[in-house]
Amino acid sequence: MQLRYNYRVFPTPGQRQSLARAFGCARVVFNDGLRARQEAHAAGLPYITDTDLQKQVITAAKRTTEREWLGEVSSVVLVQSLRDLHTAYRNFFSCVTGKRKGPKVAPPRFKSKRDSRQAIRLTANGFSLRDNGTLYVAKIGDLKVRWSRPLPAAPTSATVTKDAGDRYWVSFVVDTEPQILEDLDLSGPLESETGIDLGLTHFAVLSNGRKVDAPKFLRQAERKLKRMHKALSRCAKGSNNRAKVRKKLARQHARVADRRRDWHHQESTRIIRETQAVYVEDLAVSGLGRTPLAKSVHDAGWSAFVTMLEYKAAKHGRYFGRTGRFEPTSQVCSACGVKDGPKPLGVRAWTCRDCGSVHDRDLNAARNILAAGRADRLNASWSAGKTGPVPAQRVEAGTRRDRHMPVVGIPVL
Fold it and tell me: Which of 148, 175, 255, 296 is buried most deeply by CB count within 10 Å?
């Protein structure tokens, strides 16, 4: 499996200028390649191949007076920038033809020097790790790196990034095997499986009854951010004071994002440590982000948290499963399986009309997610060729049972 390790980099003033030059050259090559393909398409010419495009916008462009300064940076940076354009086009074509699953991918668009994020990508022949702990980048020099943790293997590629707060980062891609990363403490008791219901009142409610409070980092920093936004609006556009305030505001937003990401890592690692299988609900976060609850939804960061759970489960040999987003987890009684109908968000507790069980809304949903995840996992195992009785579908298990017509031969999950 491939893992990405991110570290902070502290370039010198001269190295900052060299990185800015590399960022600019990579952006120009990307835009030139995109413009060449768009002009060829508009003129009815055949699609320019990757090799011909590289000869046109890199090799031949260096010999012209308008692009001769492309030779001041490493050729690896230019080639990888053009390769990113190839990947963007292939993703777009795969989406148009239906080969790519997931959300729709738009065609590539031009990059701007005013983008808040600038990056260059390097292969193994464009960088090297020194014995003194520095990172050598071709035509930039030795960069000072803050090694927060060691790399498990030699990196295959590196990406140097500058964010909106003028902070520099380097991320390494490492090819490694999952079994060599088993560093969890398995001496304590482990729960077999856990269902997780994500929400806003509580960030996460586990099927074992544990509730994780939402930290709400953006809400905590909202007053300070509002004051800084006002200061930014008072500055004249293009002035030096506006640039200084913009940088302070970007760093404050980055600080909020860093705190949220660190908390997500801690909580996801704790859940992976304590369980062998994790089931979560496939939430439509992009749709919820367009509702009146958008700020709270983005402040929670559900997608990033679920992504961490997924890759950490694969990393440490755990099982990770997603249940369908249309599963009526808040409507079905987890005790008897009766579907009791939809309930507004204001209803936090309800009583089953059939068995009389009193349920906490979030805890009941977490238990239903656990049951749905178990059913999907068993169905996947049996469909892979294993023998055994086929379990009932979730819609069948959630229907109202008639006492005069007992169901025979269908196991109840």
Answer: 296
282 is catalytic: no
Given the residues 32, 197, 327, 340, the one annotated as active site: 197
Q: How confident is the model at residue 385 (pLDDT cuts 50, 70, 90)?
A: low
- Active site residue: 32, 84, 362, 376, which one? 362
Q: What SS3 state is found at 211?
A: strand
DSSP 44-102: TPPPPPHHHHHIIIIITGGGSSSSGGGGGS-HHHHHHHHHHHHHHHHHHHHHHHT-S-S
pTM of the complete model: 0.82
- Torsion angles phi and psi, residue 193, rounded to 5: -145, 150
Question: Mean pLDDT throughout 113-129?
Answer: 93
The tens digit of pLDDT for each residue in 254-281 reads 999 999 999 999 999 999 988 889 999 9
φ, ψ of residue 204 to 5 degrees: the values are -150, 140
User: What mean pLDDT is reported for the chain?
Assistant: 86
d(CA 250, CA 244): 10
Alpha-carbon gap, residue 322 to 325, rounded angstroms: 9
> What string of DSSP letters covers 370-390?
HHHHHHHHHHHHHHTT--SPP
394-399: average pLDDT? 38
Mean pLDDT of 381-401: 47
Q: Is 362 a known active-site residue?
A: yes
Is 354 catalytic? The answer is no
- Give dist(CA 306, CA 297) in Å, integer: 14
From the list 32, 84, 193, 281, the catalytic residue is: 281
- State how far the alpha carbon of 29 is from the alpha carbons of 21, 36, 95, 161, in Å: 12, 11, 25, 17
Tokens 């060729």 correspond to what residue?
385
The percentage of residues in the chain with a pLDDT greater than 90, rounded to a whole number, is 61
Q: Alpha-carbon distance 410 to 392, whole Å?
A: 6
What DSSP character marks residue 402?
A: P
Q: Would you state the pLDDT for residue 1?
A: 82
